[in-house]
Amino acid sequence: MPVIKIVLVEDLEEVIEGLNAFIDNDTDLQLLAVYRTAEAASLEIPFLKPDIVIMDINLPGITGIECIRKLKQLDTAIQFMMFTVYENNDQVFEALKAGASGYLLKKTPPTQIIEAIKELYQGGSPMSAAIARKLLSVFQNQSSSTALPEAAKLSKREKEVLSLLSKGLLYKEIAQQLGISFHTVRQHICKIYEKLHVQNKTEAINKVYGNRWT
Predict the structure, then answer these.
(1) Would you say the pTM of this structure is higher than 0.70?
(2) Topology, domain 140-209
(3) What is the pLDDT of residue 96?
(4) Which of 58, 72, 143, 152 is deepest in the core (most CB within 10 A)?
């Protein structure tokens, strides 16, 4: 696995120091930069092109959620993981709708944080167990027979990939199940986003199967 390039957007010094230490101790990870405001992050992240941005919600000035909305319009390839004290469902859903693909609480143990970063890079959506169960229960109650007209834009293979994504499978698991490469799965997902005019898999699933959980 290539080195995962990370940017941290956080204003609390103790959190910055802690995450920096965890990331430095893992040879698979590289911390490119730290920003203490969303305004600064919005200006410079598009030029750094990180793989993952770890984003706090409650920042001085504009919020982390609003920052994600702006950055996703500039580069849909960047993955965002919220790192916050907020467990409120509304905050979680707003973050996901803005373009975040992961949601961790700051009380998460260091080893789990590192695992979550790698999981996100590989196509997962690490988040609190309660929220994950809620999302899963919604998608499990939806079948391909209830797909909206947007599904007609996708090829048969793209529909298969999106269906497996909605069941919580990682990119490598989708590749194994469909007998294709990890790279091919990524290509299919990029095409899905392009055809549906969305920025992440949550938006893609909602657009095809309906958004009943908001």
Answers:
(1) no
(2) Arc Repressor Mutant, subunit A (1.10.10)
(3) 83
(4) 72
For residue 11, which amino acid is it?
D
pLDDT in tens, 88-135: 767 777 888 888 989 998 888 888 899 999 999 988 888 866 666 655
Q: Are 6 and 29 in contact (CB under 8 A)?
A: yes
The domain segmentation of the chain, as residue ranges, is: 4-127, 140-209
Alpha-carbon gap, residue 36 to 74, rounded angstroms: 20
The third-level CATH classification (topology) of the domain covering 4-127 is Rossmann fold (3.40.50)
Q: How far apart are CA 129 and CA 161, in angstroms?
A: 24
Nearest CA-CA partner of 126 in 161, 88, 80 = 80
Strand 29-35: give its sheet, edge to edge.
29-35, 4-9, 52-55, 79-84, 102-105
Q: How many residues does the chain have?
A: 214
